[in-house]
Amino acid sequence: MSIPPIAILGAGPSGLLLARLLHLHRIPHTVFERDAHRSDIGQGGTLDVHAETGQLALKKAGLLEAFKAKARYDAQRMVIFNKEGEAALTLDGTDGEGRPEIDRRDLRGLLLDSVREESIVWGAKVAAVRRSPVDQSMEVELVDGRVHRGFGLVVGADGTWTKARELVTKAKPVYSGYHYITAMIPKTSPYHTKATSLVGAGGIMATGSRRQIAAQRMTDDSYSVAIGLALPENWSRQTANAELLKNTSTFKDWAMTEKFSGWSTRVTDLIKNSEGACRAWPLYAMPVESLSWETVPGVALIGDAAHVSTPFAGEGVNCSLHDALQLAEQIVKHGLDDLTSAVSEYEKFMFPRAIAMITESQANGEMLFAEDAPRGFVEVFSAFANAEKQG
Ligand SMILES: Cc1cc2nc3c(=O)[nH]c(=O)nc-3n(C[C@H](O)[C@H](O)[C@H](O)COP(=O)(O)OP(=O)(O)OC[C@H]3O[C@@H](n4cnc5c(N)ncnc54)[C@H](O)[C@@H]3O)c2cc1C
């Protein structure tokens, strides 16, 4: 059996969209994914997919209709509250097509349905990527010891801690100082009706005193709830905190008394009534000054692997899908005999886009986690909305 010339690490949004586009152009490839099955997905939640980037990429992949069938166009409304529980700003989706939401699970499902099943190796956690000293081709080593050899290009699409990054840069993601901790309000919750009247079909975020409570409606009408806190990087790995996270009701008591006491019950009721496992997400971003490496033959990074960002610009998945589109277009243009030019051309688009996203997210994060939040955020977005109205 001949070895496909392109290895893709990771079956997240960026890796799967690249696989789909290569499949459409009959370019052989293999995806290595650490999850054991297609139904395993480490991260839940919902993603807003933007018309000019994420949706454009899905359209070019012939997946826009499948996306539209799953997307929630009524979920584009976001209301920002202060800690007194008063609505300070309402962000309505600017137009009907602009930024609909899709559950992460649904996005993965529709991408998986669009690729060749045999192109994905499940349960394939990558341990290392290296260049063969014999013929300079690329090798992918899995944690179980298997080594796949002979690739012309390895595409790191394996997220924040990609195994391909060290081949192109010494830089690493830097901790932002903030965690999100997530849980759920299921449809069966006695509080669900109240959650619906507060959050509706879209999302809310209450912010102040360097902390946040956020909630978003999911496809099954449950709500995902996240609290944002300034915490040390290894907070969830410290034994006492790991124990705290294991017991949702103890964790909720801790959050309500230690972190959100004095906040309006209108918003803290979201914490009080959340259920299920609590998961901690320390938030990282690549330093913007690191995003300009020399092209390395045989290696490309896309999505979070290239430019993980804090999520405050809502651009992460859009940038990731756009990366996959532009890398695929360059591979098609330059052909398998000149993959280095393809990667080099792709990187010229990717670096400025990534720097803009990380910079915007950092600025939004500073406003949303300010002591007097949401004041600054409301001022900036109100001015922006007024300027748009005036044309
Ligand atoms: C809490 C949170 C909220 C977010 N909210 C938003 C939002 O509202 N809007 C938005 O646009 N973005 C958001 N993001 C960012 C968004 O999730 C990412 O930008 C996007 O998922 C990146 O896609 P990706 O395919 O590059 O990487 P990922 O989604 O991280 O996928 C990587 C894939 O690689 C696999 N993998 C990892 N390591 C290995 C390995 N060693 N070997 C093999 N496989 C591996 C993983 O299992 C996964 O399937 C959020 C992120 C977080 C953490």
TrEMBL record:
Name of the molecule in the record: FAD-binding domain-containing protein
The UniProt record lists the keyword Membrane: no
GO molecular function, one term: FAD binding
Alphabetized Gene3D superfamilies for the sequence: FAD/NAD(P)-binding domain
One matching Pfam family: FAD_binding_3
Residue spans crossing the bilayer: none
Keywords: FAD, Flavoprotein, Monooxygenase, Oxidoreductase
Domain called FAD-binding: residue spans: 6-332
UniProt keyword Metal-binding present: no
